[in-house]
Amino acid sequence: MSEGERLALCGGTVLSAVSGGDLVTADVVIEGDRLVAVGTAPDGVPRRDCSGTLIIPGNVCAHTHLYSALARGMPFALASPANFTEILQRVWWRLDRALDEDTMRLSALAGGLDALLCGTTTLVDHHASPNAIDGSLDVMADALESLGLRSVLCYEVTDRDGPEPARAGVAENERFLKTVGSGGRPLTRGLMGAHASFTLSDETLAACVAGANQAGAGLHIHVAEDDADQRDAQARWAVRVVERLQRAGVVTEQALLAHCVQVDDAEIAILAGSGATVVHNARSNMNNAVGRSPVTRFGDRVALGTDGIDGDMFAESRAAFWRAREADVLTVASWPLDRLGHGARLVGEVFAEPVLGRIEPGAPADLMVLDYHAPTPLSADNLAGHWMFGLSARRVRDVMVAGELVVADRRSTRVDQDALLAEISAGASRLWDRLADIPPHPFTPDPFTPDSFTPDPFTREGSSS
Q1: For 302-356, what is each residue's pLDDT tens digit?
Q2: One domain for residues 97 and 219
Q3: Residue 422 domain-assigned?
Q4: The whole model's pTM is what?
Q5: Are 367 and 398 within 8 A, CB to CB?
Q6: Are 173 and 135 in contact (CB under 8 A)?
Q7: Crossing angle of the two packed helices 334-351 and 313-327, in degrees rounded to 10
Q8: Co-location of 179 and 217 in the same domain
Q9: Residue 311's CATH number
Q10: Per-residue pLDDT averaged across 241-252, rounded?
Q11: Of 296, 324, 413, 416, which residue is most buried, by most CB within 10 angstroms?
Q12: Average pLDDT score over the chain
């Protein structure tokens, strides 16, 4: 809504916060991009009937890869990957090299629309397009903003494609951080992005840390997702991954550390005491067979992400709960809701919005309306049980971001969904055609030598395995 414009969502059951919130039947009054009252809407305010619905804060996906949005159903003619490194070489590091500006834009639109329809109001994205780096974050931001979605973006810096793309990736992050720092994109902020220790030289890692520090931003990086990351760190530096990153200045309160699966007790202690946010991606970890992250030992600063599988945080939170419960039957159903709550606090820190993720006066109006008619009594005390065993993305009716109703009655208010999906499908076909001509990526972390870095991975001999 424009500044000063008002709207009341009337008659719903309102959850003040996903983590530890209260439930009350009330009207929610929005003015401009803010929530201004929870109670009884004053006369003269336009109303939207929400009787019988559940009004809750919008979900945050704290780690995703929107460039994977066009990979659903993607043909695969190579030998099946037998381990995590081969998954990267044969799937994702081929896909990112096939991206151009148009397919980046369509990926962002596809993933962003999916997220909004699932009630996710903020995406924290980790982007890679080594053959189209310069300006790539603006392409992603433009697409997401056109949908009305809030986001935190970065470019994935890596040495796997050689030193020039690595330097270009750092420069793209630095440029974008200046852009969003100037306030020109109200719905978008940035972090410094880096792939993972095993594809980062000391020089490149130091450049990422310096760029982040200069911008006052955190570093968004994959950490010990697979044991290959640990083997590489010990072979090259005789330390484990978390210690290497800590020494380099990565592990700060502003850092966003994705996965943290293959970590030992000493690393867990570093992470738990650092103030950094660990992002758990349960479904991705299972899909890639990398192991179970010891997420219940990292402390309170753990958020949830999807790692690019989709934008559905209802599905992700349920998978995270059942995965944790499988390891420890004493895990309570409120645990994943607390993780979603931390994701909102994290984004609030990045946007300097301390009450983002809450439905209370003064908070950004990021919320969703669920068509959920509980078959059993619903209260703040048993909300977690309803979330795990009743709520899902199919319940999402309306979504509001920064005071604008961007999804109404399960349809985007910003775009023609049917036309956009047809355009996205055509773009996916073009991307798949290009992908067929791209061989597996030659970079490998194990064994690792400095000669593994090459500026031209397309021509390196032995690139078929």
Answers
A1: 999 999 999 999 999 999 999 999 999 999 999 999 999 999 999 999 999 999 9
A2: yes
A3: no
A4: 0.94
A5: no
A6: no
A7: 130
A8: yes
A9: 3.20.20.140
A10: 98
A11: 324
A12: 94
CA 343, chain centre distance (Å) = 10
Whether 152 maps to a domain, the answer reads: yes
Are 153 and 298 in the same domain? Answer: yes
Q: Is residue 50 predicted with pLDDT exceeding 50?
A: yes
196 shares a domain with 164: yes
| Residue 258: strand, helix, or coil | strand
Q: Which two tokens stand for residue 60?
A: 């945050």
462 lies in some domain: no
Q: Quick one: 288 and 378 in the same domain?
A: no
pLDDT mean over 357-363: 98
pLDDT at position 183 is 87
Number of domains comprising the chain: 2
Structure tokens of 444? 């490998």
- The answer to whether residues 68 and 13 belong to one domain is no
> pLDDT band for position 447 (50/70/90)?
low
Cα(158)–Cα(96) distance, integer angstroms: 12
Looking at the structure, tell me whether residues 163 and 63 fall in a common domain.
yes
Task: Answer whether 336's CB lies under 8 Å from 311's CB.
Answer: no
Residue partners of 262: CB distance under 8 A and separation at least 6: 224, 225, 226, 227, 229, 230, 290, 291
Quick check: 444 pLDDT over 70?
A: yes
Under 8 Å between Cβ of 356 and 347: yes
**Residue 450: per-residue pLDDT:** 41
The DSSP secondary structure of 398-457, one letter per residue, reads EEEETTEEEEETTEESSS-HHHHHHHHHHHHHHHHHHHTT-PPP----SS--GGG--S-T
Confidence band, pLDDT 50/70/90 cuts, at residue 371: very high
Same domain, yes or no: 282 and 160: yes
Residues spanned by the domain of 48: 6-58+358-409
Cis status, amide bond into 447, omega within 30 of 0 = yes
pLDDT band at 2; cut points 50, 70, 90: low
- Whole-angstrom Cα distance, residue 341 to residue 302? 9
